[in-house]
Write a structure and sequence with these properties.
The complex is a heterodimer. Helices cover 73% and strands 2% of the residues of chain A. Chain A is built from 15 helices and 4 strands. Chain A has a two-stranded antiparallel ribbon with strand order 1-4. A two-stranded antiparallel ribbon of chain A has the order 2-3. Chain A is globular and about 60 Å long. Chain B folds into 3 domains: 4-238, Rossmann fold (3-Layer(aba) Sandwich); 250-338 and 424-508, Rossmann fold, CATH 3.40.50; 352-423, no CATH class. The longest helix of chain B has 16 residues, at 174-189. Classes of the chains: A mainly alpha, B alpha/beta.
């Protein structure tokens, strides 16, 4: 029609579009709204003690979410992190205890039989990295979709953890081990510091290194990345090693915080973690997202759960809410994408 | 003309301000095999999409047997007796022949399928199209030609009056083509009409009664095949005035061969678009030369480029860069040896659309903008971007601007800059100006001239003959995976190239 022709697209310049600005800062705005809401409804919410409590609770989710951000940036997914965490935590615990036979022994005498926390931490991370590497190989070499590989991993690593531990917990570590989960530096819980440290490292990696650029490129358009000469398969493999690393690290910190490791640890973590990443604005379609967003998303989920607990909302309802939030966040992402599409 | 079955009058359609069809007419008689002809981009596909109900026209009318028809969906068109057989066949691979023929229209009572009737009726239709198979065989176990026959049987099952066939012979062997033409001739005898799209003009002469030619979205002419010749058809297909496309200034080509391709061959691949087979493709490009490859979509030109670049595997043949053999297994191999590729589909294959100019421009040249080989040196990056912004006159706001916000011409410049930053020896540019407006086209051409004058050997692939003629020093033509001719650009004309691109048995 004549009108259509008359509206020939003017070469597009980047305009400040209010919609995009809102979309970009939506997670921060949502977090602020939640915090204000909870402060009004529940005076105990906005106290330093409670807020540090929230941060300590989210820091393990947060570590996992950092790894998950790398994977989701490549348009992948890792459902196995909770199971890897359980297996890695048990391995760390057994290393620290000097074997399964000492699983319930307490006191410094028992700790002397095992290795120090350093070896335990390395063991946990080693297990995580190895698990991630195996899954990454299955994804890149055998072309099995990440969803399927890590769904299989979710079951297999959980099974391995149960088999390894015989079902029961391994608990009672020495003080130096437990400090990593329960200690404080000044007023700040150690897990929070670990979370912040790795968030900064991950942010630098994604924003200021060649590797980070390559991850965005592979996630944004794998075919274009390949034709630009990037080794797409190697990059995809690497992000599953990274989620494995963070699952191992998270396992160590969680074991330290609970002074115990068990095969059912981390059950359902993948959902909360994926929710944190997606709410933080990382697109499940790959190529866009930031660590800053993930940190916000993680805190947001933590605040939400904490607030619901303080308001005496049942754990069952909390699960329903988390599930709905994931779907809504992705719906929002898709909506933003459709608004941005340019002919 | 026999009794008109279909009349399309003044069909007009534009997409986002770019007009695809301008007042196009098409008339097809009952029992007529009608060839719809034109170059790539002439508007054939759009016209057929409108006729099959997949798109609606901005203006114009469609009459079937004299009655006005409006198609709001493909189902509407099918109900009116128009069936379309697309180039990419649309059978459900895991279903039987019989189920595919009656997909969505299975005979039976209520919601239950009457399997006996389904198979019997399918058998009847299959014998009509000469498909001697068990109707229970799955579609995935059929050859392409057999699948096509199933689609034709499906069209017959819908009591179609008009069957549209979009390049039906592209994937067929000679014997299969003969069989298809027998079936089509049979349709004519039964009063069924066929619209036939093909790039093989000798087939038009063989099987079609009448033809319509489109060019640049406009109707050119129609006529009886018996009264015309291949030469005349070609003249009408390419006969546009070459609109002041700037010709390459004094070529700077030297004698030194940079890229030599010898007997490059590959079998037909499994994966859709890049699936054409190549047969003994040979050519060479010299330092500072622009070699044009002219060919229609599906002639193997893009497949050749992708094979050289290591994007798709090939079985045999040799590639030499500066006389040293290259056997790329990935684009990295080719890039390391100094080859760059600007792919045909900028948005799908080259750009990270949702990301910044910064991320897009320096993706290939990270070595030039990194510190310790690990960190991105954003200062060096800014300098690089500023350099190419000036050199290529890229109109942009700054390095952080999102690439999807740029015009097509500026996007293409980003992709060109990406390769220039690497200092390539060979740059292959597939469709350099697709989707780019006229002014930016000239700019991109000038950039290619400049690059050639710095000594880069350039290979340009284009569907637009005027473009190939204007910017190349030398041109090779391709057809069905073979090189069919080579000419110096100043001695070539569009008719000659079109003949080399479309006609079998090339006269030397």
């Amino acid at each position: 029609m004549a009108q259509v022709a008359a509206e020939a697209p003017v070469p597009k310049r980047q305009q400040i579009r209010p919609f995009n600005v809102v979309a970009r800062f939506a997670p921060v705005l949502f977090l602020m709204v939640l915090m204000i809401g909870f402060s009004i409804l529940e005076p105990r919410f906005l106290t330093p003690l409670n807020l540090f409590n929230v941060l300590r609770q989210v820091s393990i989710y947060g570590l996992l979410a950092i790894g998950m951000t790398f994977v989701i940036l490549t348009a992948g997914i890792d459902l196995s992190i909770g199971s890897i965490l359980a297996l890695a935590g048990l391995v760390a615990a057994v290393v620290a205890k000097g074997g399964l036979d000492n699983r319930f022994s307490v006191g410094d005498g028992s700790a002397a039989m095992g290795f120090g926390w350093e070896v335990a931490a390395l063991a946990a991370i080693g297990v995580g990295v190895a698990a991630g590497f195996v899954q990454g190989l299955a994804i890149t070499r055998f072309k099995v979709p990440p969803f399927v590989v890590t769904l299989g991993g979710m079951s297999a690593f959980r099974g391995a953890a149960l088999l390894f531990s015989g079902g029961g917990p391994v608990s009672g570590f020495d003080e130096a081990f437990v400090w990593w989960g329960q200690g404080k530096l000044g007023p700040v819980p150690v897990p929070v510091l670990i979370f912040v440290l790795f968030a900064v490292i991950a942010h630098i990696t994604l924003s200021y290194t060649r590797y980070g650029r390559q991850i965005y490129a592979v996630g944004g358009n794998p075919e274009a990345a390949r034709l630009a000469g990037l080794n797409v398969q190697k990059i995809i493999l690497s992000v599953y090693v990274i989620t494995g690393f963070f699952a191992g690290l998270g396992a160590f910190v969680l074991a330290a915080r609970l002074n115990s490791a068990e095969a059912v640890a981390g059950t359902g973590f993948e959902l909360t973690v994926i929710a944190s990443v997606v709410i933080g604005g990382t697109s499940l379609f790959g190529g866009t997202g930031t660590i800053f967003g993930t940190v916000i998303g993680t805190v947001l989920i933590g605040v939400l759960l904490n607030g619901l607990v303080l308001l005496d909302v049942s754990a069952y309802v909390q699960q329903i809410i988390i599930g709905m939030i994931i779907v809504l966040a992705v719906a929002f992402d898709t909506f933003v994408k459709s608004r941005r599409r340019i002919l | 003309m026999r009794q008109p079955l279909l009349q399309m009058n003044g069909i007009t359609k534009s997409f986002g301000g770019i007009s695809a069809l301008r007042a196009v007419d098409l008339r097809v008689g009952a029992g007529e095999v009608h060839a719809l002809l034109g170059e790539n981009g002439a508007g054939k596909s759009t016209l057929l999409k409108i006729l099959s109900g997949a798109q609606s026209p901005d203006a114009g009318e469609i009459y079937l047997l004299g009655a006005k028809a409006t198609f709001n969906s493909p189902q509407d068109a099918q109900r009116s007796g128009i069936a379309t057989i697309y180039q990419e066949l649309t059978l459900v691979p895991g279903m039987s022949i019989a189920e595919n023929i009656f997909l969505g229209r299975e005979p039976g009572r209520a919601s239950f399928v009457d399997w006996g009737r389904l198979v019997d009726e399918a058998q009847g239709l299959m014998s009509k199209v000469g498909l001697e198979k068990n109707p229970r065989i799955l579609a995935r176990d059929l050859s392409v030609a057999e699948q096509q026959l199933v689609e034709i049987a499906r069209a017959l099952s819908m009591k179609s009056k008009l069957i549209i066939m979009d390049e039906p012979t592209a994937a067929l062997s000679n014997a299969e083509v003969d069989r298809l033409f027998d079936i089509v001739s049979g349709f004519r005898d039964e009063g069924l009409s066929v619209i036939f799209v093909t790039h093989r003009l000798e087939e038009v002469m063989r099987v079609c009664d009448r033809f319509t030619i489109l060019r640049d979205g406009a109707f050119v002419c129609e006529g009886d095949v018996a009264d015309t010749s291949i030469d005349a058809i070609i003249r009408h297909m390419v006969g546009r005035e070459i609109t002041a496309m700037q010709r390459r200034p004094a070529p700077a080509a030297t004698e030194r061969v940079v890229l030599r391709v010898e007997n490059l061959s590959r079998r037909r691949g499994a994966e859709g678009l890049n699936a054409m087979a190549l047969h003994d493709v040979c050519f060479e490009v010299r330092r500072g030369e622009i070699l044009g490859i002219a060919g229609l979509v599906g002639s193997g030109r893009t497949e050749t480029a992708r094979a050289i670049f290591g994007a798709d595997p090939f079985e045999s043949g040799n590639i030499f860069i500066d006389g040293v053999s290259l056997r790329p297994t990935s684009p990295q191999d080719a890039i390391r040896r100094g080859i760059g590729l600007v792919p045909e589909d900028r948005k799908q294959q080259a750009l990270f659309l949702s990301q910044s100019i910064r991320a897009n421009l320096t993706v290939t040249a990270q070595d030039r903008v990194s510190r310790l080989g690990v960190f991105i040196d954003s200062g060096a990056e800014d300098t690089l971007i500023a350099e190419y912004r000036k050199l290529l006159r890229i109109r942009m706001l700054g390095p952080e601007q999102i690439v999807s916000d740029l015009s097509g011409g500026n996007q293409q410049k980003i992709v060109l800059a990406r390769w220039l930053a690497l200092g390539p020896k060979v740059l292959i540019v597939d469709e350099p100006t697709r989707g780019i407006d006229v002014g930016a086209k000239a700019e991109v051409h000038n950039l290619l001239f400049q690059m050639a004058s710095t000594g880069i050997a350039i290979v340009v692939i284009s569907s637009e003959l005027p473009e190939v003629l204007a910017i190349s020093d030398r041109i090779i033509t391709m057809r069905e995976g073979r090189v069919t001719g080579e000419v110096q650009a100043d001695a070539a004309n569009p008719e000659m190239l079109m003949a080399l691109m479309t006609v079998d048995a090339v006269a030397a």
